[in-house]
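Case study B.
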Amino acid sequence: MAEVLLYRDIAKQFTGGREKIHVDAKDVRSLLRALDTDFPGLAEVLQTDMAVAIDGQIYHDALLEPIEENSEICFLPAIEGG
Amino acid sequence: MAEADKEFKWIGTRTIRPDGVDKVTGHAAFGADFTLPGMLVGKILRSPHAHARILSIDTTRAEAVPGVKSIVTSADFPEITRENAIKGESPPNFHDLSQNLMARGKVFYDGHAVAAVAATTPAAAEEAITLINVEYDVLPHVIDVDDAMKPDAPILHDDMFTAGVEPKPTKPSNIAKRIIFTKGDIDEGFAAADIVVEKDYTTQAVHQGYIEPHAVVANVAKDGQATIWCSSQGHFMVRQYCAHVLGRQIADIRVTPAEIGGGFGGKTTVYLEPVALLLSEKSGRPVKMTMTRDEVFRGTGPTSGSSMSVKIGAKNNGRIVAASAELKFQAGAFPGAPIQPGCMCCFGPYDIDNVESVGYDVVVNRPKVVAYRAPGAPISGYAVESTLDILARKLNMDPLALRELNAAGQGTRTVHGPTFGVVGYKETLESAKKHPHYQAELGPNQGRGVASGFWFNVGGESTASVSVNEDGTVTVTSGAPDIGGSRASLVIMAAEILGIDVNKVRAIIADTSSIGFNRHTGGSRVTFALGMMVTESARDIVRQLRERAARIWDIEVDAVDWKDGEARPAGANAGDFPPLTLHDLASKTGAGGGPINARASKNVQAPGPAFATHICDVEVDSETGKVTILRYTAIQDVGRAIHPSYVEGQIQGGVAQGVGWALNEEYIYGDDGRLQNPGFLDYRIPVASDLPMIDAVAIEVPNPTHPFGVRGVGEVPIVPPMAAVANAIEDAIGLRMTDLPMSPPRILEAIERKD
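Model:
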């Protein structure tokens, strides 16, 4: 299962403080759906001006990006450069 | 990917710049160089007040000036509600953008646009804007970020409540947002420390200082179809922003990019373009608008000034066990300071178990900030890298050794979440330690400082095409403005894949109606992302060429190799055919199946992060307070330097801007909230005589996600300089400078305090 790392303030708000959640998902979209089923409202927060890092690589607007069995998933603020 | 392991013919060579001759002979066409028959001149009336309610705007007298053809105010812009502020997938906030373009109801800073005029001559336009009568109710203002956070501060936006705090506030505030990034247990971490250092810092707002002021020509035809010629970091961005702000359909706007005379993040938004479109539409004639330098300073975005506190705890052996930062960034008149990347980047180079970064996005009565190279990272980097230097001194430890002991590498989990893949930070430290600069002797009043920096880099939506011309030459077409040498890089990558002379390949930047969407040039993305699209397209061309040769020879395509720009039988069993060159195949496209073209479009992902370590030597004149940069070495993991001269130029440019930020640049406001130094005479950017030759050292730790190993290079070189200079000053005269700029008056003041 993929390991999802959540920021502490998001974890406090949605997951009872659990910052690591394990999810069985084949891509980012199915992962978000699974998270939202268990923690209603979380998917919206994780998609609002957020990017996702899969195994350390950062993706923007990446709902269909595949996730491996033991991937590390982290949602982080979208990044704009200069 | 395979390309990164091959021997290269063109990658890594210093080919002639495609834009060089035009630029050095003065033939390059920049934003202000376009003209059209019957063109009018547009001018903007700007607020003289830092904060005021607009009671009325009377344009009657201005309209009567001979030659005046159109006038616009906020009444001509569609009102965008907060509910409809976000369109599409990403920022900006179009409510705020619209209000920044033309004040609606209130002005929020000295220089805020209030009205615009188009007339047949500059004199008529200038006269007309002086005759527009604006009645203001002047309000209290706030310029400083700490002042703006006080409970009794003048409030800029009555409908703004701080996001990110619990319980949700019931009173409006200038703090748009509070964010927090946490890893581990910060209290436990500090409790375990043998030594804790803590320091407060301030930095000033600084402008990107691009040499070319904003300029545009806009022409709206009678059927509403509009054409724009302008200099920007993204003509697709200009098209999109104009369409959304003015409520037009995107297909009705065509934007042609000019050469750009610098942007550095400052041209990733619009200021003049929607205004020029409205003036053109109302007058029925083309309108040209060009900012003065005064307008650039007063009306366009700098990056944030800040107030920061940093605390670092370590064991006596130098291992850092806890680090925290509280960062307060000025956003200008509307929310959007680069506080998130500021928080995310500042501890990026280090592997620390317990970290916390807290950030505040704070509105003040200054121009809305806009991106500036590695937005936010240089600001927070100055505070963290200065504090690390203090720690190294207290531990009596070499500052590079301290960084090496705590350096992030593959497998380090960052404070912003992800775990690093292949990164080259440790390699930059190793190189710095071995560099002759680090061992060189210093004289009296001279000192040496080091500092490091981190930036994510970005990818983004990109389109490129490659076309083979009838004579075997090749045209590469992309849609992201060339700011730092992307045309040269794209040409080199295409030539490498096609196996042809680089001088047979030319690159152009197409207008918005001639190629698919491209995200703007920024975040050090173009050579990485467009390079990937050009590489894919060139590979597709090679595939097509092999297929054509196979058809001509009547053999299987797998039996055809493409090498050194020609098709060859793959081996003796494939047959004995003379090679077919690209020229041979290109000259017979009619019989061969038609034109040879390829296109690639993608939302390019997974850019490799960049790290840098800088060494700076200074000499401080204790009588005048002047700091002279004696020697500067900037070491950076560039992934793969496609064109080393451009890479070095990016690094040198970043350092030069960082040195200006460190030593002299600042916005100076009077008590009346008006900017007092809106020009290069009083806002001092470094000139050639202020800087030594900057030694740019490129370390190549290839980015595994790119076919040639490219990492973005343009952002991270501006991150370390402020701390490197501050650390060198302390080394020279024993004074820790905690406020930027470290200008002669500030140095003298610090020396006097010490004495």
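The interface with chain B takes residues 5, 7-9, 49, 53, 55-62, 65, 72, 74-82 of chain A (CB under 8 Å). The remaining cases will be described in the next quarterly update.
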